[in-house]
Amino acid sequence: MNGPAVVTLVSAARLDHAQAQWARTAEIEGLRQVTVWLDEKSPPRLPGTVIHLPPGANGLRLAVGRNVGAQAAIDGGADLLVFLDADCLPGNNLIERYCTASREHSEAMLCGPVTYLPEEFVGTTPADLERATKPHSARPNPTDTRCELAPADDYRLFWSLSFAVTAPTWRRSGGFSELYEGYGGEDTDFAATLLERTIPLVWVGGAHAYHQYHPTQAPPWQHLDDIVRNASIFHSRWGSWPMEGWLNAFAKAGAIRFADGGWMRVT
């Protein structure tokens, strides 16, 4: 059976948010679900095709998880892969807009706008989400019926929170680099690969997703070691440094320093 499939990566820490997502996707007729469970322990009962992917030596394997989730969706007959972060609720027209855009731009990577919901937000009805719509200002937000082709400089804005791609274009992309484990870097690496392989990036108006609130740190101190390690992997592959804002913040606080051409922890 052809059609779209949603691929969601989830751990126990984000299970409640993912349950809210699945309550909405379950209402969409013909939409299949692929769920990748990232924790060491066996998963609880989860919707759709379930893949258990325990952590690697350096943390959760997000890049591998997206790759195995995509392959499972394709093996199940999906011709459009919709990747949604576990924290994200799909907007009222997200699947419809991605499907329409995929017919118009079958050789492109498709990205919709994301609204960060405030802590005080309650309710998940279509009207609730519509009233809350306020997409993150760092990324384009075309009108609801439009798609915009991203220039080369915009590839750095690619976000894995919400994106979609046809099965043939996913194969052409090669998927995410599986060198990355733990937090950070794999999105930017994937975007660099898309640009290198001349795969268009298209902003899809109306394909709204809504990121549910959870506490964060800025910079994310809990991920310091992951960020330093993954930034070094990215630099070795592409010759530039990702996540520079966070790296500079860690350095300003005295936690890391730049020496001999790379970042390292201060002991």
From TrEMBL:
SUPFAM superfamilies: Nucleotide-diphospho-sugar transferases (SSF53448). The lineage of its organism: Bacteria, Bacillati, Actinomycetota, Actinomycetes, Micrococcales. Belongs to the glycosyltransferase 2 family. Pathway: Cell wall biogenesis; cell wall polysaccharide biosynthesis. This is Glycosyl transferase family A. PANTHER family: GALACTOFURANOSYLTRANSFERASE GLFT2 (PTHR43179:SF12), RHAMNOSYLTRANSFERASE WBBL (PTHR43179). Keywords: Glycosyltransferase, Transferase. GO terms for molecular function: glycosyltransferase activity. It comes from Subtercola lobariae. Residues 153-213 form the Galactosyltransferase C-terminal domain. InterPro entries: Galactosyl_T_C, Nucleotide-diphossugar_trans. Pfam families: Glyco_transf_7C. It comes from the Bacteria.
